[in-house]
Structures are given as structure tokens and as C-alpha cells.
Amino acid sequence: MQEKIITQTTNWIKNVVIGCNFCPFAAKAMLRSTIRYVVVEETNYDSSLEVFLEELRLLDQSEDIETTLLIFPNHYADFEEYLDLVALAENLASDEDYDGIYQVASFHPNYVFEGAKADDPANYTNRSIYPMLHILREESITLALQNFPDPEGIPERNIDFAHRKGLKQMELLRLACM
User: Fold this and answer.
1) How far is Cα 136 from Cα 95, in angstroms, rounded to an integer?
2) pLDDT tens digits along 106-128
3) Taking the CA atoms of the chain, what radius of gyration do you get in angstroms?
4) Side-chain half-sphere exposure of 151, counting CA atoms within 13 A
5) Per DSSP, what are the bridge partners of residue 69?
6) Which among 1, 54, 86, 152 is most buried, taking Cβ atoms within 10 Å?
């Protein structure tokens, strides 16, 4: 089952994240095979945060891992419950003195940006196959942004792209990954 979850997640990264150019830096990590996938099947907040902290510590020791995706296929289906997990993970990272070292990005099947309607195609820029926490190295982000023209415009370009594609096309792109 874990293999299927990782395959679906990889398909989503390739076909949606990279294919739609939502993250212009994802292709490099994919090509270099420096993405670590961790499927967390049985969990609650405490055990999720324990796994999250273990991943931060593993990244400290493993320069060859660029980024980690913690995938929760059986939990956090409720988006508000998931947002609580994101906040708890960010607070834990800060409490453990990881500010400026790692950043948490959030992806969820029912992702809705604050102030957006649930059926806004732009939500699909963060709508993954499964709820997941994406741990990124801040230093890598900083270096990548130095060589990227207009990094501040990335979110707006993503929104424009999703709106041009439309809701049905964005839904189909994600569904094709499963």
C-alpha cells in the first residue's frame, strides 16, 4: 500500500506541481532523486509531531535529502483538523530552534486558501492526493530564489494558470495521478 501512495504522490508532483510549473524548483529535486517520502499510516497529533520532529533531525544528518514529504493517507481528511496539525508542526519546529532552517509547506486534497471559495481552481495549486506536510530546507529555497526571475510573482502566476485551466481541468489533472 505504501508503494501505491508514494507512486500516486510522485505522479502528482510530476504531472501537477512540475507539469503546471506551480513550483519551479521541484523538477530539480525530482531529477536528483532527493525527495524523501514518508507514509504515516497510523497516527494522531502526538505521533504525527513525533514523526515530524524525527524527520527534522534526519534532515540535519542527511545532506543528500533535499526535502521530505510526510504523507498521511488515513488521517486528517478534515481540512480544519489538518490545519491544526500544520500549526502544531510549525510551532514545534520553532520550539526546537529550526526557524530559518526548515520550512513547512502544506498540501491537502481539500485545500482552500483563506478567503477563497471551495470551488476556486486556484486551490488546486495546493490540492494533493493525500494530506501531507512538506519539509523544505530554507537555505535551498533562498539559493533557488536568487537565480529565479520575479519569485514574488509565483503565487499570482499559479493562480492565473489555474483560472485559465478551469475547475474541471484542474480536477482531472489531479485525478489522473491516482
Assistant:
1) 17
2) 999 999 999 999 999 999 999 99
3) 16
4) 11
5) 37, 134
6) 86
